[in-house]
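Rotation project, supervised by the postdoc (A.L.). Task for the rotation student: set up a whole-complex structure prediction and record inputs and outputs verbatim in this book. Inputs entered:
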Amino acid sequence: MPKKFVSDFKVVSNDKLNESYFRLRIAYNGELPIILPGQFAEIRVDGSSTTFLRRPISIHDVNIDKNEIDLLINIVGDGTQTLSRLKSGDLLNMVYPLGNGFNLLSKDSSALLVGGGVGIAPLLYLGRKLKQKGVDVNYLLGFKSTKEIIALDDYNSCGNVFITTEDGSIGEKGFVTAHSILYNLPIDKMYVCGPTPMMKAMAVFASKNNIDCEVSLETKMACGVGACLCCITETNEGHKCVCTDGPVFNIKDLTWQK
Amino acid sequence: MAEVNVKIGDLSLRNPVLTASGTFGYGTEFEDFVDFSRIGGIIVKGTTLLKREGNPCPRLAETPSGMLNAVGLQNKGIDYFIEHIYPEIKDYNTNVIINVSGASVEDYVKTVEKISDLDKIPAIELNISCPNVKEGGMAFGTSCESASSVVSAVRKVCNKTLIVKLSPNVTDIASIAKSVEDAGADAVSLINTIMGMAINAETRKPVLSTITGGLSGPCVKPIALRMVWQVFKVVNIPIIGLGGIMNANDAIEFMLAGASAVEIGTANFIDPTISVQIAEGIESYLNKHNFISVTQIIGKLEI
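Outputs recorded:
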């Protein structure tokens, strides 16, 4: 696993993307270490009296030339609310890069990256890296409604984008699990991140169709480095830490279908 | 420059800072962040005779200035530790101390016997205070008789410095500390986590899978400090203080209350480099106040 660091970053920009999502662009004053798609950072939240622990946030994108990292964050509580108020020039302290990351397909294969809600965050950097390797990248992204959709230019630049909304306002109506693309596209591997019911449904689809499938799990975490054993998930080999053995797991190793 | 080394029984610490069991893994998890040669020691994850899967999820609940955990002593057992983990960590340039937990006196004794052969482990921290497992740990630490019986039995087979970790979930921690001293402990460490709970009002369900869990972090510090002070007044063995230490100043408060050394626990989650910073901060404090040795502040609360 790549070496981990604890470092201060400077906020370059904080863009409000919709009602509850914002994108932080942060810069490191030095050379960024190797960061794998699917890895995450533990972010210290300063200035919230109710937030004690760091917040695990996935790496949304990396600009290695500018030593910048993007984080796509959904406001769910006081911690993320506080982060949403950061302004350019503010400092952000991160422990990173954490977790295992996705296993990348090799070229001349076809990948389907399925995201729901803020679970789309790690799929941008993943798609960028897959595209660089010559993989055919297809995104299937699910949102509640038009209001929740964020600007998708970044995703469009990395692959073909297919959308579902629960109210049918854009793309196909319903959940990602029913999108027609699932049956019309040759898929060598699926990468899934989103709400647990969605990931479980996609895992069932992948198993039925013999498609290799990795999911990125989200849990509450304390240390982020495999020491506290708070963020475990059930696997075929017993409890594993989401922070270090994951967050990415192959569905073959999880006990979801038992 | 002030001397910062301290002695806990036969155990020499280059400085009074240890990392608390369960918050620092086996050290390997923190190798990228901490130069082990700059702390007094590492107390590794609680180990039991047999493998334990620990409690189901959720195991964690955050509080405004701390956290509740319900890990339940997940570990692979002492034989796995000896075969796979010990070889990896035995040559760390610091004291490697193992924390031992058990469900019966026999469990504790058997586990400690196995550790006796490990040359590079100078001390054992006997956990008689884990609040998260039904059958073990805390049951021993909540009465003088049971605490005494497990410590006496372990003392007979323990050739290393024996530190006994006490539970705060008792009416009189000082009397338990005294019993443990009389039973042959070389030192006591306190406090383990305080039993607490969290409820999700929306779902009307407990947050933790075990309903109750162990509270740690800065919210417990005043209680821990008070208990160290109470214990200091009745025992003659060294005390290792812990409970919500987040910075050097907190550590010094514990030493003034009577602790010869401190353990850094939950703070490792907030800043993985904190243990070294605290060790350096203690030294700066001593120099600033013109002390020649850290031993000059132990129990020197001015009343």
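Student's summary: Residues 110-216 of chain A form a domain with the Rossmann fold fold (CATH 3.40.50.80).
Supervisor addendum: Helices of chain A lie at 78-84, 121-132, 153-156, 181-184, 196-208.
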